[in-house]
Amino acid sequence: MNRFINLFLFALIATTSLGQKTEGVVSYERRTSWVKIIGRMSFLSQEEKDRAAQTWKNDSEYKEKMKLVFNANESFYSYASEQGETEDGNYSWRNSELKLYRNFEKDKKTEMIEMLGKTYIVDDSLHTPVWKIGNQIKDIAGYICMRADTEDPIRKQKITAWFAQDIPVPAGPERYNGLPGVIMELSLNDGDVVIEATGVTFRPVTADELKMPKLKGKKIDDTAYDAIIRQHIADSMIAHRNPYWSIRY
Amino acid sequence: MKNLFLLAVLCLLTASLYGQSAPSPSRISIQGRSVDTSAAPLASSTIMLLSPKDSSLVNFMRADEKGSFTFKNIKSGTYILKISFVGYIPYNLVVKPTGDAVIDLGELVLKPITKELMEVVVRTAKAPLTIKGDTIEYNASSFKVPPGSTVEDLLRKLPGVQVDQDGNIRAQGQTVEKVTVDGKSFFGRDPKLATKNLQAESISKVQVYNDKTEQSKLTGVEDGKKEKTVNLELKEEFKKGGFGKVTAGAGPASNDLPARAEVKGNYNKFDSKQQFSVIGLGNNTNQQGLSFNDYQDFRGSNSFNWNDNADFGFSGSGRGFYFGGDDDESLGIPINGGGGRGFSNNAAGGANYNYDTKKTKLSTSYYYNQSRIEINALRNRENFLQTGSFLTEEASNQINFNGNHRVSLRYEKALDSMQTLIIINNTRLNNGNAFLFRRQALSRSDGIPPAGTLPDYTPSTLDSSTNQSDSRQFGSASTVLYRLKFKKKSRSFAASATYQINTNDGNLDLNSQTRFFQATSANEALRVIRQAQTTNSLRNEYKASLLYVEPFAKKFFWETFYNFSLRYDEVDRDVLNVGDAFPIRNDSLSRFYKNEYLFNRVGSGLRYSFKGLNLSAGLAGQRFSLNGRYAPDQTSPVDSLISRTFTTVVPNVSLNYDMKNNKYLYGGYDVNVRIPSSRDLQPIINNSNPLFINEGNPNLLPELQHNVNGGFSYFNPGSFTNLFVNVYGTYYVNQIVYSQQVNTETLVTTTFPENITGGKNIGSYMSVGFPLKKTKATLNINSQLNFGNNLTNINGTRNETENRNYTIGTRLDLTPTEWLTFYGNASIGRTNTRYSISSGQNQQITNNNFNGDLNLKLPGSFYVNTSLNYRVFRNRQSNFDQRIPLWNASVYHILGKAKKAEIRLSSVDLLNRNVSITQYAGQNYRQNEQVNTLARYFLLSFSYNMRGVNATIRRNGGF
């Protein structure tokens, strides 16, 4: 066993020193726990939350596959396949538009997000959140990752990210980035939603893979985006409906 | 285990570099070199600058090939410099300003992580351990143990923890004296009790720390001794829970009725795998079933089960064939029987147990309910004939008792990753009896009166009868469902088998006296029936289905299914004429009947599915064969043989399109096949109402319904605007309709089911909702149109009834503040009915409904709810005009800080006007019915809810 570990360690160190792992594709699984999210709805009584937890406990988790294409300066995040489908592949549906492009060198992002019955184009600088770096390390899909924490002031969520020490690209899933390595796992609000890397392929990526499609939608910037989300959450809470049925958690 | 501590020390301890104080430049550079213990450079190591205040990341970079790094032109200040490199312990250093423009940190040495710790990190997926002060916290899910392992097995896996053969635990070389769960030591002093009994999978974290001894905690005197303590933190979902509620209320006698009372309660106990619940209710306030919420609490994870349909068919359009509704006395637990007609006393109770794991799911329940209902009704019906019409005025008093035992079982097992087996059984045992007294007066009018005038009616027939009956029913349905997945994605196979049995043994004592005023002879002027009827029926049904789905060309699926069904019916009916002398068998009403209905269907279809566009088309061939025989008695020679076969091919087309920005479009064409119910097929003459006789028809063919439907929906969750449009149409082939034969002398009506082709129905529904002021006022407008053409034979003449129904409605939600809400709705409905058989008798029926619901929150946890419902029933042609206002109000107060109890005073129907009214025009008649119903009563009730009473005055918009 020890020998194996030695070997493993050696291999890890060897690979890091051999080449720069700055280009490739990360595959993620995004798991949404609706029961946990329902549990956050302040307008529901404990009775209603418990009822939902008991009723839906066998199918409370919703999974989707996502992918992140990156090189040293850019990244593109979207669904892994062009349509959503059940695990057995028997039924499929259209995914809401979600295409997130980032350019770290130019400090720029372009995003196409369908929400609230509209398609928005968010065009702005990166606005990297303030990350707090912790001391924990763990292994995700074969990569040693360090912990970083931040929060989403609009959705009032605690965000925990685990970034790979040896993939030196500040890219990440969803709208998160700006750490010294690729974010391999993202946990929103203690696991309400977890986006976890299932594997990384290092290969040259083409410009097409990083390219945004033709942009159709309402152009806004981060401030406007935040204002829409904030307004929708506030309205929904007043109207006693779960805001996260119609916006991404 | 020293290594662990080394890590702890290194992670937390940060070396400091002190410099002289000097006037600081505002911008500085920090440089250094990251090397390992043998001074070899750590190329590309990650260098981070953190703010010392909260460890937030200020800047980061990668070291070059020589391990060198320089942060240039950064704001002068104190930083934490953090270096990380795979396989090394993260290096932390506090860098304070030295006054120089460049701070050179020199060589910074990173220490390798020892093999043992690396193993922990590499082997596990979740952050395996965190060190906080003197506490080491292990993340339990990082240490894989086989399912069913105890905490002891888990502890063995933790680095730095040893468990010996006897279960004694040592951590960091010291004996563990104490094991606590969520900080509480309810397992007593022996730490082994907890570790040997608790399941490893229920633990989220294991914390090892030194705790003060109980002695020093008790005395408050520090004795300097520390006990090694292991604390087990339970996973949120594994926390055992129990909740429940109880409500009891009573009110004084009113309206010559005794005092009102209701009581209900439930209790629920659960952990991550199991749920046990009990429920009970009793009342004389017409609440017969469970509310939907109570049902959900009772059944838990088994409230809904998708994929339990064992009758496979075309995907997306239901199962495509079904057996007539009236046979299926519901096997499921009754929900929402509130606000029923008449006066009822109800009691119900049951228990449910669920066990759910990823691989095995089990749910069982038992439920008993009983109701005693008293119904006093007045009915007024006018039947139209070619030659005129006749009026039936009926008054009846009825007392029904029904008791049902229901048992259910559902077992689902994942045999392996490809195969699933589901076994379901639902069983019901029923015991019922009923007493009915009925008085009917018939009068006729010959010829059609001039428009606008009422006809003159001549008394024709007078009947008074009593029915006394009792019955025992048993029904049980068992299904086995098997699903198989293949390696090839989307390829799947499923098979099912179902066995259903229903028995119904009933007795009826019928007493009736009928006078015919227009009889020509004295003999015919009075008819007396005194009969004892015994009817025993048995129905067995065997069903099997197969389904195979083959994907091809990526976006296409080829689906093929086969259904088999064999229904066997047997009825033994003995009717005895009970006179003054010996009972004599009535051969024309007694009957023995056997019937087999065999159904086979094979179908196949193609489905296209891509990016929210689903299109499918298919064809099915089906064959029915009907074999029956009947005779007055088992022993008598066969009277009649029935043998029919019917074959048909039905198509199926459907479209489902999920478009961008919450727009959906759907449409389709399919053919439903409705197999005649056993009751419709049985050649039995039911004379329990001697003026209205039902007969079965053993020659009935299945009904085919050609359905077309289409619709569009749009929902904008941002602006809360929505739109739904739906149109539908049905054309009937071999529709099962109840034709009539009216004896023109006696006006005795006999109805019997027949197959008639040509009936049709089209309609549409539309609804628009939008906020008048966002989150404060919402308006919804909807309209419904339905045009139907129904065919029947009346005395051998084809009658076409045309119904045109127009309904428009509106809903207004006002939610201006936290303390006031109002929900109002109104609907106006008009139905025009024409009868081809009697064109002068067109009916125009109005059903209007207005409703308002006001909620107020007052200071001091007081709440008020009041609602007014106003219904209008009108039919100009028959001078029927009823307006019923119903006013309910309640005041409630939530008690205590914990808000677990509520006291409520409610008044139902304050105006004392409640009566149940229905009116209908169709076929060849129009009818209205009034049933006396529980009117004004008051109730003072008390509720206790362990989870807290919820007093929101605003309705939930879905969660």
From TrEMBL, chain A:
Query: Which superkingdom?
Result: Bacteria
Record Pfam families: Porph_ging
Q: Which InterPro entries match?
A: GLPGLI
What protein does this entry describe? GLPGLI family protein
Q: Which organism is it from?
A: Spirosoma utsteinense
Automatic annotation (TrEMBL), chain B:
Q: Any stretches that span the bilayer, and where are they? A: none
Domain called Outer membrane protein beta-barrel: residue spans: 485-808
InterPro entries, per the entry: Beta-barrel_TonB_sf, Carb-bd-like_fold, OMP_b-brl_3
Comp. bias intervals (Polar residues): 458-472
**Gene3D superfamilies, per database record:** TonB-dependent receptor, beta-barrel domain
Stretch list, region Disordered: 447-472
Asked if the record carries the keyword Membrane, the reply is yes
* Keywords for the protein's UniProt record, in alphabetical order: Cell outer membrane, Membrane, Receptor, Signal
User: What is any Pfam family matched here?
Assistant: CarbopepD_reg_2
Write the signal peptide boundaries: 1-21
Where is it located?
Answer: Cell outer membrane
* First-listed, main subcellular location of the protein, grouped into a coarse class: membrane
Its domain of life reads Bacteria
Q: What is this protein called?
A: Outer membrane receptor protein involved in Fe transport
Organism this protein belongs to = Spirosoma utsteinense
Which lineage do the record's taxonomy fields give for this organism?
Bacteria, Pseudomonadati, Bacteroidota, Cytophagia, Cytophagales
